[in-house]
Design goal:
The chain is of the alpha/beta class and 252 residues long. The chain has one domain: Thiamin diphosphate (ThDP)-binding fold, Pyr/PP domains (Rossmann fold), CATH 3.40.50.970. Helices cover 34% and strands 16% of the residues. A seven-stranded mixed sheet has the order 2-1-3-4-6-5-7, with helices on both faces. The longest helix is centred in the C-terminal third of the chain and has 19 residues.
């Protein structure tokens, strides 16, 4: 009998540290399946910073680099320039990428650095206790916004749409946003990541896939309710799909 599915070789078969209902595990599975499919496990390197992303090197069975908080794109830039034949993945959460690392992110994209960013957006600070993140929705409650995010309040502002922000930069070549709230969206997200990785292998500029992911613990919800909330509240604010695709017209 032909075996159709199995555990990815690039994903270590160990118990998870992530909370029940967290989307990181699904995203790890997608990434490792693709790395196995393109047979680049020996040349894959992930840069994963502070935040829940810091645990990912426990599960990815290939090389990793842990940069300081917010400096992930700078580390990925250095690794990719030294090892241009390697597959370099920048794995970041919304705090790391859209707060302390905003400058690094924008300039790496604008320079057209040839690595791929996987941006996990769960609209909250996960590891540090549920504080308001740059992507927290208007009205969404957080440890530092117990009454809900209020754009009129000092220091709160509006949620940042990272994919749209990076799409206007000339150095970005492929920007997409997926989600892991349903089997259909998981398949679409995998197809977006596959395109981004293929673009990197062709030596095209900056590529990024944003992924909407549930955080039941810090949202204060049961896992099923968190998936429903993502679909009903997050997706209307952060629409899914390819935001920018210039792969056909782009050349190395």
């Amino acid at each position: 009998m032909k075996k159709l599915h199995g555990h990815p070789k690039s994903l270590r078969p160990i118990p998870t540290k992530y909370c029940g209902g967290c989307g990181h595990g699904v995203i790890h599975r997608i990434i490792t399946e693709l790395i196995d499919e393109i047979n680049l496990r020996e040349k894959a390197i992930i840069t994963n910073p502070v935040g829940c992303a810091i645990w990912s090197d426990l599960y990815f069975d290939f090389d990793s680099v842990q940069p300081p908080h917010g400096r992930t794109p700078a580390a990925a830039t250095g690794v990719k320039r030294i090892l241009p034949d390697h597959l370099v993945i920048c794995y970041q959460g919304d705090g790391d990428m859209a707060a302390i690392g905003t400058g690094e992110m924008i300039h790496a994209a604008n320079r057209g650095e040839k690595f791929t960013t996987i941006f996990v957006n769960n609209a909250i600070y996960g590891m540090t206790g549920g504080q308001m993140a740059p992507t927290t929705l208007v009205g969404q409650k957080a440890a530092t916004a117990p009454g809900g995010r209020d754009p009129g309040a000092a220091g709160m502002g509006y949620p940042i749409r990272v994919a749209e922000l990076l799409a206007v930069l000339d150095g970005s070549r492929y920007i997409a946003r997926g989600a892991v709230n349903s089997p259909g969206n998981v398949r679409k997200t995998k197809s977006y990541i596959k395109k981004a990785l293929e673009a990197q292998r062709r030596g095209i500029g900056f590529t990024m896939v944003e992924i909407l992911s549930p955080c039941p613990t810090n949202w204060g919800m049961e896992p099923v309710k968190a998936v429903e909330w993502l679909e009903q509240q997050m997706i209307p604010v952060f629409p899914l799909g390819e935001i920018k695709n210039t792969l056909e017209e782009a050349s190395p």
